[in-house]
């Protein structure tokens, strides 16, 4: 049996500029962090030659082509596995909530399957293969930031170049700043799940008319990276989060709603220094950056379930491996 653990992520600036239509024209950049909320994938040799996949549904099929789960199907093809395998998944956080669950799932499945065949992939290889599956093969209208955040782990600046290459720069903060950052971030679940594809399709359609907003979002990510790298955690961090959210709201009408706006304004008025909705938009988690003295006021004002979290320094990892069951 092989078990992989792959972190989800929160993004602080630049989300939306990692989509092809944007970075091909303007370039793109994102500052994000992996968090200690995970997707676990188990892979085990099956007694017979069927393929069994267990997620919200259970599939048992004789061939890869008959799998309905498109991501698992294409990952099996890339790994060269044709049968005799069982794959299960468990997630700490529901899908469709803005923490990059779909791409973390893809990274985790690829990591487990290739390890099962005797290959240990680097974070760069995992990121590129996950993008190939989700974007190139399946045609999902998503960006590249989630795959890289989950594969690498930690706090990072990712730059997305017009030639499709991606540069990763690790952001190293002092222990004091890491603790302050973790203690100042507040994550609230809106209770709204949505399809990222629907929001991103509208954003894709609007991209030519929104290039100025996207340029501003990339610039904020660039400035945040420079500030964190050279000065550490400063008041600019919170301001940049909110400035980026205001610009992102301009990209598509489905990114926010009156209910989400009400909660965001309530949190900011209660003392948060910055805030945004995570992910493509439309629902999921609200993130606030807030000094400790105002946090209880923010909790009361937002009045949503809070999810504690920490930054995860590791990316997708094989946490258990019974090597007798690898097929290499």
Morphology call: globular
Q: What is the overall pLDDT average?
A: 95
Topology pattern, helix = H, strand = E: EHEEEHEHHHEEHEHHHHEEHE
Radius of gyration: 20 Å
Q: How many helices?
A: 11
The main sheet comes to: 8 strands, mixed
Low-confidence stretches: none
Oligomer: single chain
Query: How much strand content do the residues show?
Result: 15-25%
Per DSSP E runs of 2 or more residues, the count of β-strands stands at 11
- The span between the termini is 13 Å
- Secondary-structure-derived class: alpha+beta
Approximate helicity band: 25-40%
Describe what is shown at a glance:
The chain contains 11 helices and 11 strands. With 328 residues, it is of the alpha+beta class. The two termini are 13 Å apart.
Written description of the protein model:
This protein is of the alpha+beta class and 328 residues long. Helices cover 39% and strands 23% of the residues. The protein has helices at 20-23, 70-79, 101-116, 123-137, 145-152, 175-184, 196-206, 211-231, 236-248, 258-269, 295-302; strands spanning 2-13, 28-45, 51-54, 58-61, 85-91, 155-160, 166-170, 185-189, 274-277, 285-289, 317-321. Strands 1, 2, 3, 4, 5, 6, 7 and 11 form an eight-stranded mixed beta sheet that branches. The chain is globular and about 60 Å long. The protein starts with a strand and ends in a 7-residue tail after the last strand. The model has no long low-confidence stretch (mean pLDDT 95).
